[in-house]
Structures are given as structure tokens and as C-alpha cells.
From TrEMBL:
Annotated keywords: Electron transport, Iron, Metal-binding, Transport
Name by which UniProt lists this protein: Rubredoxin
Keyword Metal-binding: yes
GO biological process, one term: alkane catabolic process
Positions of the Rubredoxin-like domain: 13-64
Cofactor: Fe(3+)
CDD domains, alphabetized: rubredoxin
Record-level Gene Ontology MF annotations: electron transfer activity; iron ion binding
Amino acid sequence: MRFEGSFLAVKPDDRLECGICWWVYDPAQGDDVRGIPPGTSFAALPDDWCCPGCDAPRHKFMVLGA
């Protein structure tokens, strides 16, 4: 899968930010809007998952810096 930050090595605990609305996916939090439990890495999200803030597809997400 390719996404905005795909040039970086994405680790299971990396947080990613939507490039459209700036909503942040944090694996430690999961996504209660879409029923994703805490501890789910970005790579493990379902193929049909999209941003709960604006419905942007996964490829619009960018890895946040440390």
C-alpha cells in the first residue's frame, strides 16, 4: 500500500495524520468511530478503513515525526 508518508519506514506504533483534515490515527488509541481497538497498527487497518474526520482514503495519511 502506498500513502503520503510511505517513503518512511512505518513502525507499528507510529502515529499518522490525515493530509486533508489533520485527524491523527494513534495505534495506542485505535479508532472508536470505526470500531478499531487500541493496539491496532496503521498497517493492520481494514482495507476499507478511511479517515473518521473526513472520509479520506488511507493513502492520504502521513507519518508524524517524533
